[in-house]
Amino acid sequence: MANKLLIIEDEPDLRELLSFTLSREGYDVMEAETAETALQMLDSKLPDLAIVDWMLPGMDGIELVKRLRRDDVTEDLPIIMLTARGEEPDKLKSFDVGIDDYITKPFSPRELLARIKALLKRSGTPENNVLESNGIQLDLNSHRVTINGQEIHTGPTEYRLLELLVRNPDRVFNRNQLLDRVWGRGVYVEERTVDVHILRLRKLLKPFGLDRAVQTVRSVGYRFSPSE
Ligand code: CA
Questions:
Q1: Which of these, 79, 173, 174, 228, has the minimum number of CB atoms within 10 Å of its CB?
Q2: Cβ–Cβ contacts within 10 Å for residue 64, how many?
Q3: Distance, CA 9 to ligand 1 centroid (Å)?
Q4: Model pLDDT for residues 92-118, shown as the tens digit of each residue
C-alpha cells in the first residue's frame, strides 16, 4: 500500500495539479475542497500526511489544523501548509498551531515532493516502506510481517495494531485511542476487544521472546517497548 496523502485545497486547478503530480509519484491521493469535507473524510480514513491550504472557504486551514491537533487520532498527523506570498508573521503563527512545514505559493511540484518525502521520513514512515524494530519487519506494501527473517501470519487487526505500536515506540495508548486508530472511529467495538487482540498479538510474538515488548500499563492501556 502506498503512502496516503490528503490534499485540502479549494482551487480546483491547483488541487487537480497536485493530485495528478502526487499520484504519478505513486502516492494514494485523497482530495477535499473544504476543511469540513476533510474532517468527514478523516473520520473513516487516516492519511499518512495532509497538505492543507491556508485560505479555504468556511473553516480556514489554521482552524482545521487546530482541530486536528486537539484530536487523539490526528494529533500527530504530519501536516504541510500551503500559504500565499508575504505572510511571514502569519507563517510563524501557523507553526504555533502545530503544522510541520509550509510551502509558499507559487511553488514547484518538485519542491513539494521533496518536502513530503522529508516529512514522511521525519515522522517515521520509512522510504522503502519497511518498518523495523527488534528484528520485527513490517512491509507496509504487502502487509507481510517477518521476525528474524521468519514470516508470521497475523490477522488484519493484529497487523494494524502491531504497525501502530512499532511506529510509536514507548508511547502509551489507551483503549479508546487504539479503537479509534486500529478499528476506526465510528466503529462500535467494546473496549475489551482491544485486550483480546493484544493477547493474540502477544501470542504471535511469544516464540521470539517479544511478547514482553507489548506491555500493559496498568489502568491506562498498552505500549510497545522495544528495549524489553
Ligand atoms: Ca485557497
A1: 228
A2: 28
A3: 6
A4: 666 777 899 989 888 998 999 999 999
